[in-house]
C-alpha cells in the first residue's frame, strides 16, 4: 500500500460536479473575474462561519498578515511578539512593516508559551501575533488577559486553524484582526493562492477593503493611502464558497482520523502524540497530525521505505536562518521540536485501511 501525505486529486474529485458548476457560471456565463458577487458571497459566508461581522478576501495568507500590521499602524520603533515555530511569513510581516520581531518559545502543544509571552512584553510592544498551529487554537484566555493589561493588539494567524475553537470561540474571532490562508494543503484550500482577514471592527474592514485594492475607495473615487493589489479573485472565491459548505464534514473527518491515530498509537514507547480530539476547552481541526520522537530521522526513512508520506514543516527554526538576522534568539523548545517532529498523512479522504497501515508501521517501528 502507498499512503501519500495528502492526496489533492482524490480530495477534489469528491466535489467535482459542484465545482464544475460554479466555474461554468463564473467563466462562461458571467465572465466575472475581479471584485464581483462571488467574492462578496464568500466574504459573507466566511464572516458568518467565523462569528464576526466582516471578512476581506485577499490574495494569500502572507499578504493578509502584511496588511493586518499595516492597517493597525505598526511600524518602525514598535516591537511585535510572535513565535519562531511558524511559517516564515508570520515573522516576515513584522519586518515588512518596519517593526522589530520579538520571538518567544512554544509550549508542548506547539503553540506560543504564554509565560514566555509575558516575559517578552516591553514598553515598545505594540502587538502579539498568535499562531494557531496545526489546527489548534492557542490559550487565548491568557493571551487576551495580557493584551488587555498591556494595551496590545492581538493578530491571530489562523492560516492553519479554520474551524478550530477555544472555549467555544472560533479561530479568527478573538483578535483585533485574524488572517487566513487557503493554500491548497490547508483545511480548506482553493485552486492556487488565496487568503482572508476577519475583523469585528467596521473601520478596519473599510480600510482593508481599500488597502487590498491599491488604496482606492472606488465608490467615492478617492485614493486613501498607498495600497496594494492583493484581491482574492472571483474564481477562487467561488471555489471557496463550495468548500465552506463542506467544511463541517471535512473537519469531522480530520477529527475522526486523529481519534483513530490517537487510539492506535497512544501506548507506543518513545512516541509523543498531539492532544487528543476530546479535550476540555479545545476543539482542534488537525491541519496536521504532528508526532514527536527522538528517533525522528530514522522514522522518516523507515516510513518512506513503507511508502508512507510524511512532512517535516520546518527542519530548521526560523531564527536559525542566518540571512534573516534573528540568530540572537535562544528558544530551547522550538529548537528541540524542529529536530523531533514530523507530520503523518492527514487529509479528509484518507481511508480507514490507510490509517490502519500507518498505525501498523509505527507499531512495528517502536516495538
Ligand atoms: C502559519 C501560517 N502563516 C501564514 C501562512 C502564509 O499563507 P500563504 O501561503 O497563503 O501566503 C501559512 C501558510 O503556509 C501558514 O501556515
Identify the notable features of this structure and list them briefly:
single chain, 367 residues, alpha/beta, Aspartate Aminotransferase, domain 2, Aspartate Aminotransferase, domain 1, 7-stranded mixed β-sheet, 3-stranded antiparallel β-sheet, 12 helices, binds pyridoxal-5'-phosphate
Strand order of the largest sheet: 1-9-8-5-4-2-3
- Outline the low-pLDDT stretches: none
Which ligands appear in the coordinates?
A: pyridoxal-5'-phosphate
Number of helices: 12
Number of strands: 14
The CATH superfamily of the largest domain is: Type I PLP-dependent aspartate aminotransferase-like (Major domain)
> What characteristic shape results from the CA principal axes?
globular
Under CATH, the topology of the largest domain can be stated as Aspartate Aminotransferase, domain 2
Number of spatially distinct domains: 2
Mean pLDDT value: 97
- The helix fraction, in percent, is 40-55%
Named at the architecture level, the CATH assignment of the largest domain is: 3-Layer(aba) Sandwich
Helix-strand pattern, N to C?
HHHEHEHEHEHEEEEEHEEHEEHHEH
Amino acid at each position: 500500500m502507498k499512503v501519500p501525505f495528502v492526496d489533492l486529486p482524490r480530495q477534489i474529485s469528491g466535489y467535482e460536479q459542484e465545482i464544475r458548476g460554479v466555474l461554468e457560471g463564473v467563466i462562461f456565463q458571467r465572465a466575472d473575474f475581479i471584485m464581483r458577487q462571488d467574492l462578496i458571497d464568500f466574504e459573507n459566508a466566511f464572516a458568518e462561519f467565523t462569528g464576526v461581522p466582516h471578512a476581506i478576501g485577499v490574495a494569500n495568507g502572507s499578504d493578509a498578515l502584511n496588511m493586518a500590521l499595516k492597517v493597525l499602524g505598526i511600524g518602525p520603533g514598535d516591537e511585535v511578539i510572535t513565535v519562531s515555530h511558524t511559517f516564515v511569513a508570520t515573522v516576515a510581516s513584522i519586518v515588512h512593516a518596519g517593526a522589530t520581531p520579538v520571538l518567544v518559545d512554544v509550549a508542548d502543544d506547539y503553540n506560543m508559551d504564554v509565560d514566555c509571552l509575558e516575559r517578552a512584553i516591553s514598553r515598545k510592544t505594540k502587538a502579539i501575533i498568535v499562531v494557531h498551529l496545526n489546527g489548534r487554537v492557542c490559550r487565548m484566555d491568557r493571551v487576551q488577559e495580557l493584551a488587555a493589561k498591556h494595551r496590545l493588539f492581538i493578530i491571530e494567524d489562523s492560516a492553519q486553524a479554520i474551524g478550530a475553537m477555544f472555549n467555544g470561540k472560533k479561530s479568527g474571532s478573538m483578535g483585533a484582526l485574524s488572517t487566513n490562508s487557503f493554500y491548497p494543503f490547508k483545511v480548506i484550500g482553493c485552486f492556487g493562492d488565496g487568503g482572508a482577514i476577519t475583523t469585528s471592527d467596521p473601520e478596519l474592514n473599510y480600510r482593508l477593503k481599500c488597502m487590498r485594492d491599491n488604496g482606492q475607495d472606488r465608490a467615492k473615487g478617492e485614493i486613501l493611502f498607498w495600497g496594494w493589489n492583493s484581491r482574492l479573485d472571483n474564481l477562487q472565491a467561488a471555489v471557496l464558497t463550495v468548500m465552506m459548505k463542506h467544511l463541517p464534514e471535512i473537519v469531522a473527518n480530520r477529527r475522526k482520523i486523529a481519534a483513530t491515530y490517537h487510539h492506535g498509537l497512544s501506548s507506543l514507547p518513545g512516541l509523543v502524540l498531539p492532544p487528543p480530539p476530546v479535550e476540555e476547552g479545545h476543539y482542534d481541526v488537525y491541519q496536521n497530525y504532528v508526532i514527536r520522537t527522538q528517533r525522528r530521522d530514522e522514522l522518516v526513512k523507515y516510513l518512506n521505505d513503507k511508502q508512507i508520506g510524511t512532512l517535516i514543516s520546518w527542519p530548521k527554526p526560523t531564527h536559525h536562518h542566518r540571512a534573516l538576522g534573528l540568530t540572537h534568539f535562544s528558544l530551547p523548545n522550538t529548537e528541540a521540536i524542529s529536530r523531533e517532529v514530523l507530520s503523518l498523512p492527514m487529509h479528509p479522504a484518507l481511508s480507514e485501511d490507510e490509517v490502519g497501515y500507518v498505525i501498523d508501521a509505527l507499531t512495528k517501528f517502536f516495538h
